[in-house]
Amino acid sequence: MTLVALSWLIESRRVLMVVTPGTLIRWHRKGFQLFWQWKSRPRGVRPAAASGRRRSTFVRNHASAVLACDFFVAITANFRVLRVRGV
After folding, report:
1. For burial by CB atoms within 10 Å, which of 26, 50, 69, 78 has the most?
2. Mean pLDDT of the chain, nearest integer
């Protein structure tokens, strides 16, 4: 769908290129790899020891009220991150 939409915006005869399905799949995988590298980059530095102590103290203090659930992300077709929580 993306390629069709781009073909309406760009004069296709100027940029026409024939590619194999393998090439298109390789470009797509490389795009996903670059996207996740960008998304996973470190944003700030926190001391690991202090962070670990706070987490263990929190778990110990709230163990009776902690609910176990799963969190995961799904990437949509336009590379938006969809956060999902499962109980």
Report:
1. 26
2. 79
